[in-house]
Amino acid sequence: MCSGGSKSSTGDAGEGDEHISSGGHGDTWKADSEEGIGRGLRRQADLNKPETIPATLVGVHTVIDCATGRPEEPIKTVDWEGKVALIQCAKAMGIQKFVFFSIHNCDKHPEVPLMEIKYCTEKFIKDLGLNHIIIRLCGFMQGLIGHLLQDVARLTFIALRNEKVNGKLLTFAGPRAWTTQEVITLCERLAGQDANVTTVPVSVLRVTRQVTRLFEWTSDVADRLAFSEVLSSDTVFSVPMSETYGLLGVDAKDVVTLEKYLQDYFTNILKKLKDMKAQSKQSDIYF
Fold first, then answer.
1. pLDDT of 207-250, one tens digit each?
2. What distance in Å separates the CA atoms of residue 166 and residue 53, rounded to the nearest whole number?
3. pLDDT the model gives residue 23
4. β-strand pairing of 27-31 with 19-23
5. How far is CA 273 from CA 147, 181, 188, 258, in A?
6. Is residue 100 classed as helix, strand or coil in its secondary structure?
7. Direct distance between the N- and C-terminal alpha carbons of the chain, in angstroms, rounded to an integer
8. Residue 110 needs a FRET pair 20 to 30 A away by CA distance; which of 7, 75, 185, 249 works?
9. CB neighbours (10 Å) of residue 40?
10. Which residues are bridge partners to 23 per DSSP?
11. What is the distance between the alpha carbons of residues 62 and 65, in angstroms, rounded to a whole number?
């Protein structure tokens, strides 16, 4: 795999050095500060169409790349071929710093296509000689992505302003690793009621992957189901953060814990539901 679809958009904001951040399914925007992200006009680029990338990088100082392909897109097309084009273009246009978001332990799981591609991309950036920061993220749950991305974004901007971090590999993790069942139990306790949970055994995911690998038109599904192999292993997707906090000059107390986030969330949502119930004739409200 280590051989050389996503739409992107950029928006201008403010004066001074500009940063372009590519995130989500390849969406990108340009801003000169944390407050400026998402503001201003937008220009479109597409990692599936390398010819659209150069215009997006004009006048840009730093690229923050956290884009990935949509579920219906081949992993290799966006996450490898599109990224190689972006990185080569950044090098050719003299981008001063390239921040790449990768996956924790990607070097240990070559059997998972996306993780192998992430590791290959890390090596490609280093070999090309770009001034870079590589940030590996531990696994996070989709429903909690908003909470986690706030801390990730803040730590990333702190790293950008710290010259000691240039050329380093950082791993961002939470204060502790949570299993799905632990999160469910915490939510049940805070909500005061049991949750309806549907569980899909890892063995079923394995069989499904084997079947989908038999057909070319379902090969992309098989690639994404490869994560089931990681889920079934004893790998813990978490790392101590004390050294990283020290390097970035961040106090661990400033990072929001999952317990605090969910407690605030349920306090607010339950209050709103009670207010709705008081204004409604319905006696029971389910959520």
1. 888 898 888 788 878 887 887 777 666 666 778 899 999 999 99
2. 24
3. 55
4. antiparallel
5. 21, 25, 16, 22
6. strand
7. 45
8. 7
9. 15
10. 27
11. 10
